Amino acid sequence: MYDVAGAKKAVPAPDSGLCDGCRQGVCALSHLQKDLPDRRFINLAKGGRLEATGPYDCMQFWIVTKGTAASCTTFADGRRQIVGIEYTGDVVCGLMSAPSTQHWLEALEECEVCQFDLTRRANALRHDPEFLAATFAIVHRRLTVSQDRISMLGRLDSQERVLLFLAELVQRHTALDPMAPVTALSMSREDIADYLGLNAETVSRVLTRIKKSGLVKFLNRTEYVMPDFEAVRRRVPVEIPMPHGACNARILMEAFK
Amino acid sequence: MYDVAGAKKAVPAPDSGLCDGCRQGVCALSHLQKDLPDRRFINLAKGGRLEATGPYDCMQFWIVTKGTAASCTTFADGRRQIVGIEYTGDVVCGLMSAPSTQHWLEALEECEVCQFDLTRRANALRHDPEFLAATFAIVHRRLTVSQDRISMLGRLDSQERVLLFLAELVQRHTALDPMAPVTALSMSREDIADYLGLNAETVSRVLTRIKKSGLVKFLNRTEYVMPDFEAVRRRVPVEIPMPHGACNARILMEAFK
DNA sequence: CGTGAAGTTGATATCCTTCAATCACCGTGG
DNA sequence: CCACGGTGATTGAAGGATATCAACTTCACG
């Protein structure tokens, strides 16, 4: 997708969706300057929350710089839904749902989040084409991901959902780190369930069924391998989403540095 | 503003979400100039389709100028999911999911759609702050709607989904046309089912249950009233979304006229 | 080890789907 | 004008899938 300056694109057919920087782990995140007044680093323990309180004009946002978090909602009666998983490099902007719905960012594991507050520069940025294009790209990408998840939640059964989820993690980790032999599954059954619109027991049952089928082999409770990725792909009626690493963050960083 | 857990949350003023123009029915749509070379009006009969063809750079889009359409996807095995309903005034941009997934706009009733092709002006518009801000606003709004639908599909049961759907239509029609006594339900059971992640028989069953409960009264198969909107609101654990009329179209029109 | 939290498994209930039959509506053609 | 046929809607019966509740196991960590 993003060429190295001058170099020819090498066999672009299967496109991992990652810029070369992301693939090499030297993307925008590593050059984030920590000492500027508009940014603040927040460490979240597993389960820690960051709540949205408006105003919702997208002049504040958060980049997950370490770990994995989740955009969560709950209803009054306690039902919880994970609207999206925010991996390292993902950019979360303030307005994620109606202001009245309870909505927050929750660390699924040890996390570091960089909070940007651009309200002081808002008037300038609102007319800055580069900044606008960057935020557009980010929101646009989030929209396509969300829409695919609508189809997933509306029409896939539990086994398809879990398989798709596991395959997505594999895809993600092989794109970022092709050498790593196993994929980590750091989320709890409860979290997976809330992400997939199921409950924890169902996730557990489906997981054992998948283990027995041989499509996925678990080394322990949090690491697995997928011996035949193609077989999994055939079992799932949708495309397995490509990760986008820290590209979003990079785009944004370049826009308003 | 985001705060660490525990901070107080701002209570938003009740806002119908409509610009004055939309509320008075004299919004951008009525001044759409029909004879410019970059736009083309398309009439769709019920069930008619408009398929998205690349490239997916959002330099092509469609405004629903009459009627109601749906952003649809299907899987290889025929399962269909309506990703979103596009009411009059909604702006649909080309890339709505991964290019490989089958995805199209389908008329739920007699429709008129205005297709804009800005590819010839793309290079200029890519740096035009006003245009960028407008497309950002549109995509951003679509994202919030999509994320609420994720919660709906993941966590609401069939009755809650149908009630929410009916309430949303009522809300929409009272905001646009407070004098109209009844709300029209022009979608077929099949369409409603594909929108709510159910099947047609379930929708039918739930509707008769809702009728019996008295929450909704049907005058005939396609018109209903909701005698006690508050009672419905109490039955549904989420906010009932506000319509946004032709505001999106207006924003866009002003940006690149 | 001991303890608590997370995960697994089983029994059962509930919800939703599937399949099939019937009904209601609507336009068409005799 | 009315019989006819087609399509969508409704309803019923049965089955399947997922949720719920409860018991038990495993694991992490002191």
Automatic annotation (TrEMBL), chains A, B:
Gene3D superfamilies: Jelly Rolls, Winged helix-like DNA-binding domain superfamily/Winged helix DNA-binding domain. GO terms for molecular function: DNA binding; DNA-binding transcription factor activity. SUPFAM superfamilies: cAMP-binding domain-like, Winged helix' DNA-binding domain. Residues 156-230 form the HTH crp-type domain. Coiled coil: none annotated. It holds the Pfam family Crp. InterPro entries: cNMP-bd_dom, cNMP-bd_dom_sf, HTH_CRP, RmlC-like_jellyroll, Tscrpt_reg_HTH_Crp-type_CS, WH-like_DNA-bd_sf, WH_DNA-bd_sf. Keywords: DNA-binding, Transcription, Transcription regulation. This is CRP/FNR family transcriptional regulator.
